[in-house]
Amino acid sequence: MTNRTENIGPLAGIRILDLSTMIAAPYGATLLGDFGAEVIKVEIPGQGDTLRGMGPFKGDEPLRWPTMSRNKKSITLDLRRKEGKKILKKLVAKSDVVIENFRPGTLERWDVGYDELKKSNEELIMIRVTGYGQTGPYSHKAGFGTPATAFSGFTYLHGYTDRPPISPSFSLVDYITGVYVAFATSTALYYRDAGKDGEGQFVDIGLYESVFRMMEFLVTDYDQNGIVKERSPGLSGHSSPAGTFQTKDGHWVVLVTSSDRTFERLAEAMGRMDMLKDERFYTNAVRLQNFELTNGIVADWVKTKKRDELQEYLDDFGVPISPINSIEDIFKDEHFKARENIVQIEHPRLGKLKMPGVIPKFSKTPGSIRNIGPDLGADNDDILKNLINLSDEEIRLLKEENII
């Protein structure tokens, strides 16, 4: 384990080599960087992470990169070449964790798989992210978030029954997997440092598994009841009433009653205490059998009130309701501001740039944003000189041979 330095977060002193590209694994590394880990992003010379070329853009400037790769350093290194492998192994000897998302067997073919890298560092932890995991008949397949979401069963649940299933409008499964990457890294570090053997290990994560793990209701309902849950445009099969409703002034809100006690509060707010004794509505189980009727009653009532009036009114009764916010709404919202959910950072070319803040909030060792996503190879000289003690001449030759 590397020595802890100035405490800038609970993971201060942990060094991570991020060999991964695009979203899922890099996002996990970013989360760890937010809480003090030193994250060194290793990229292909002259090309870099393909995420650098992913929209949106302002002119030629990628707008996703500064946030997705914040709190990272960037070095370039060709892992396929002999000198590149040597440098990687020297970096591994000074690091705690390697995060990668190549197809299974790729690093092994390059002679820098886990077993080989562990020779340089017995305490090494490696997080391996692929579409379908390191094992199984589909492990060789290309893995991307949207197909993995479909494979998990998630996509099957979403949309209208008379239209095709719909995918999430952004890379949801990648970000969920990134959270698992951060969780797995922290757990493996704890075991290594608090356990008896002090050794590292590798962790195997499939993209589809992260969202599949969240659908226990789907598994048990099919196992015990033989139910194949079909798609619906909103929350269904769990709570009633629940869904999207339109207010008198044309805004959309989400309202859900996840327990009978919550429905009792809603019934009181609507002036419909009679529903609590009606055999069609008095429990969640019977309301689910009369879902459309129940939702219709709520929809008609919601249309009698304007959005802000409705929000204040139901807040007073303790009924869960929220406006459906656009990003413009979020930028104006006082709660997002108070929670520092959006922060402003200096960008060398764009000037002031806003991005999501750090969560969760630690009382004693809070996370921080120390730098935005770096330019390609920005930290080559610093890391190669100061971490693995290469000379200026050695670095010059590596540049000339396109190894870095």
Q: Can you describe what's shown?
A:
GO terms for molecular function: CoA-transferase activity. It comes from Sporosarcina ureilytica. The structure is a single chain. This protein has 404 residues and is an alpha/beta fold. It folds into two domains: 15-213 and 341-400, Crotonobetainyl-coa:carnitine coa-transferase, domain 1 (Rossmann fold), CATH 3.40.50; 242-246 and 252-323, 2-Layer Sandwich (formyl-coa transferase, domain 3). It has 17 helices and 13 strands. The protein has helices spanning 24-34, 65-68, 82-93, 106-109, 114-117, 145-152, 172-194, 207-212, 216-225, 260-270, 284-289, 291-302, 307-317, 327-332, 334-338, 380-386, 392-400; strands at 15-18, 38-43, 57-58, 61-62, 72-76, 97-100, 125-130, 202-206, 242-246, 252-256, 321-323, 342-347, 351-356. The strands form four sheets. The protein has a six-stranded parallel beta sheet with strand order 5-2-1-6-7-8, with helices on both faces. Strands 9-10-11 form a three-stranded antiparallel beta sheet, with helices on one face. It has a two-stranded antiparallel sheet with strand order 3-4. Strand 1 (15-18), helix 1 (24-34) and strand 2 (38-43) form a beta-alpha-beta unit.
Q: What is the CA-atom radius of gyration, in angstroms?
A: 25 Å
CATH class of the largest domain: Alpha Beta
Taken as a percent bin, the fraction of beta residues is 5-15%
**What is the domain total for the residues?**
2
The name of the CATH topology of the largest domain is Rossmann fold
Low-confidence stretches: 1-5
Structural class: alpha/beta
Bin the helical content: 25-40%
CATH homologous superfamily of the largest domain - what is it?
A: Crotonobetainyl-coa:carnitine coa-transferase, domain 1
